[in-house]
């Protein structure tokens, strides 16, 4: 209820503030027997970390993850995985003007109003720095999903008014890391980069959106009604900092489509099972996966911390004042948001895999409920 | 996990299939002392019920709600409220062609794939008929919110390519029930009506969207991160049948706004507290309410059950066939979806009111934790 | 949080007051494909129902259960099962003296203090009548467990100072329904019966205890720490009305045993797997099942509603008064508590079976995650 | 579901294995504005830590707690509190004989059977070392409760067949830390000490029990049915490692009491509210607190790790063998269990305080829902 837990069977519980001592999370419900090292997690953290390019904040955080529990001899043990990531480059001084005079459209005011206090350095708990935990947990979820043949990927498909053309999943897998913007389409990426730099130079920032897609999701994943795949994805994605819209399938365009046009007729696949002719339904029907790719889009508004002068109201002095937010901030969010969106997609899907019994909640290598004394990676003799 | 429960402190647990014997839900966590009668609930059920106009299904359901528990002498007792609504006009025969040959883009196939079976009459559990439970529970949530000064309303702001101009909250309160389309703007409503009838005559259906707004939401409601107001609204709204997009504040448009333009400066309100100059942030900052109106939009795709001929694949016979869905169906969803969206908004907000301690979880009339033997509406002498 | 929900994957949500219109519950998370009829549930309800013998309340309730949803062609569909049981013989008049003058040691005062009101007829929500819902849900849990080879049974092993000798599980299965006391040992049952009648004649009541046992529980069920089998059984059993103690294995006697005596050495079973030589550990080690029978005991205090005169304090008049509780009440609880304890044991175990993936959460007949269009009990052609 | 989370509004999520790198927990739902330092937590950790006397394990762990988040200027911020405790004195070597040959009645076999692996050093996740997290979280809960006038305490009231006479709450507060056994009654403590040393010398261990009591619990705390105070205490206490019985009020003795004897008549307190004449009901009626002290008892079996030779079955070699458990182990659990039982009592009660709205979930210093910009301990000017 405190907002720091995600998931039902695969649960992530996080802690940490932007300028606190450390970030961390506990993953509960990861089955035993998954080969897992800090490197597996680090790869995704590096995609999210600050300072990776000219269009991200210059804060210098290595974001080295340390696994504190839940691993034996390189494999998960089925017990909680504790992760800690030290904060190393926090400089809170520049936030002092905003202690009692909230930054426009940031969480400064609402956190203080709710809690009567807040950790103000770097945005504290409200900072997107917290998503470092999500990406760490998401990396584990991705590893579990990959074993089951589920692949997922995101890329930046819009910055300001620059939109990318449609790209294939294969292109996404291959090209999404090739430029700083994380847009699969190289020409569009160049345009986006130019646009971002333009706003950056003006001391402003700009919004954008991220397209995501998952393939290999088995038929029948999800649940009716309140826990539908679309509802749980909705929660997951709307939790991503700065998100103002979540769409799947046709998204907002569906308002203009007729039933006949949007409906996907049925045919048979090679194994003789019904399969939709097209995928205007976005891989989800009645809240449950159809076996087609699940795809959608997340809109992120422009970063609120900008060097341009803005008006704030100091509740301590009772005075209005003009302030510039001087810290180190991103001029645009989607490029670093890509691994965050992927993480939330992965966490949502792996949870449903466990809920459907497709993943053995106790151990990955066996059928659910099997009991097999032969298999013991914790046994040194087995190594 | 079964998809039939919504809410954390104010919980709704539902049951029922479209052509089953009855629909029903249990409301847990409603504080004691709220005056409540079946009429309070019926009013919203009547806005949702079938057969209310030419552009809704002709199924004849009175949707009379019966309160089975949780009320004493006209007031809630703090214990679970059991509601039952009989199904009276179910005619399953017309669904027989689809038992093993799924309707395009409906939940027929995915339910069968997940459960190995399904209640096929009228869509069974996957039917939007289930939202009768949501609206019933939502009516109670609205009554609680009204006591705390929170008002909310929705209306249809788009059907096909016909969009309504912006309307004020006051107009919504006053005019949203004045036409069958439930669009506050009369001329647009006429256009929408004409468009719907056109598709209806062709045996087709059309999509649309619903705008919602809540006023009087206190400052500081919500939670950081995964349980932010926006994340929980995201889940709530994406659970509404046929939803393909959820937006709040600027929604998808935020992609094109700069930080400077979207950021809302601060000024002081009459009591000397900081308040945003505008509300481009949609009433939520850092996942927590700012005191400004919360507004947004939900896109609903066109109904999938249409009388036009479509191709389906019969997994029993292995044959492709052309079928028309003959039952009684809506040609468009938003008009009846308005009370459903309001219900989900109300359920989400009342839950946060309880979670924040603003509503006494035990009894509405007192400060939380107070203990007062004088107040006993269950005492006949007090009547 | 409202106290009317039990279970994590197999969830029961209840409503109803002793003298309200109806009792009811919704079962969420029961897999599809289980053959289920009202008769399956009725059998256990009849064991719990009032008026079944001279030593139970004379209230005349047939306790006929009606299934409102979740069943198609005699099989569960995987969607919520709604059950309703009408109350037919409520006579609230005799409770009027206690509206503002609480019965000693009943929930009258605490409910009123918490909620500022209460349904006072027959104890309202605090009445043990509510366990009719538990037994109904438990009957479904038992059917699921039986498919997996898990059997469970309870019997009355103590009334006042009359204790039954140890009995075997086979004797429990065979003889527990042979007398009104529900004690497997016939001579002890006679003694108990005589003792109960003695107190009944005096206008008093007496306590007792129930022994329970489950066999066939697979190795490895449960979870570490807070969700251990023993912790979850503790919650389940301590929820049984009037319970003051829960024990498993050696229970309170374990205080006097040494480690050497209580520890159970290991040997090999026929399949070459380690198995404990004895079962002083009660079938649970480290919170997880060992494969040995799980057994324990629940103590129920004497019914508080007795015809003997007792002192109460009327908060309306400010006067002390002597009152006799005249309604129709049980002189002892364990005989009717036996099916309630079995129900809570079954609900706890079936939940762990689902959590461990041993039961396919989607459908009972298949391996988790399998997708098989051939199996469709909802298809009339298959019948 | 993974067993590492306790609580509903005040949630503790733990990680760590006995011989892993670190133990840790995240506390979610602690209101803002509570003064809190590492010293507050350390005091209770020191009561639980190993090596504190001759009758505890000689493992040398300072158990220094480090707060990683959730505190600003010495006060809680309402956001998650991350705690980490390094493991410093782990010597796993002595556990090698038991990797594939489980210790009798420990969790070795069941963990391996469930997960197909386990962290075997020192018992890994199944070790009572994990309760260091519980005690840390419990210390915060106690501080919150103390503000509301709720006090609680536990002491050892039985070791083997040596039982302590009844002691008053005041004696418990004053004397429970005066001897190594943590028994309030000095003569009994001496007897207990002698008995423990006797078993210790023999290479054996012995069971015992802990009495707990809470005073100042407000009237009306708890919930009906499944979430009753007794049910939730049942779960909490049965989660304590080695617990085999939980009793409250008369406990198992209630079986022999009549209704007339056990029932507590009502009188008026000084403020004219009904109050029970006695407290045979243990402070809980109908699952809800009566305002009387809540008291009960927890039985802990003898430690299973003993230096005496025992038979185990090696599933790798298929051979039976005799082994002594050589590590550093406690000969008896209750003395170090006292702070653990207190922690679980505190965590349960604070959760109910939040659920009842008696504690403002957002900030301790204000009425729930109040919004007050004056109060800002995070504002350096306020210091």
Tell me what the structure shows.
4 copies of one chain form a homotetramer. By secondary structure, chain A is of the alpha+beta class. Chain A has one domain: Chorismate synthase AroC (Chorismate synthase, AroC fold), CATH 3.60.150. Helices cover 25% and strands 21% of the residues of chain A. Chain A has 8 helices and 18 strands. A 5-stranded antiparallel β-sheet of chain A has the order 1-2-3-7-4, with helices on one face. Chain A has a 5-stranded antiparallel β-sheet with strand order 9-8-10-16-11. In chain A, a hairpin with a 4-residue loop joins strand 17 and strand 18. In chain A, helix 1 crosses helix 8 and helix 6 runs antiparallel to helix 8. The longest helix of chain A has 22 residues. The radius of gyration of chain A is 22 Å and the shape is globular. The two termini of chain A are 43 Å apart. The C terminus of chain A is likely disordered. Chains in contact: A-B, A-C, A-D, B-C, B-D, C-D. At the A-B interface, strand 1, helix 2, helix 6, strand 11 and helix 7 of A face strand 1, helix 2, helix 6, strand 11 and helix 7 of B.
* CATH homologous superfamily title of chain A: Chorismate synthase AroC
* Share of β-strand residues of chain A: 15-25%
Structural class of chain A: alpha+beta
- Greatest contact between two chains: A-B, 113 and 113 residues
Query: Into which percent range does the helicity of residues of chain A fall?
Result: 25-40%
Beta strands of chain A, count: 18
Question: Main sheet of chain A?
Answer: 5 strands, antiparallel
Looking at the structure, what is the overall shape of chain A?
A: globular
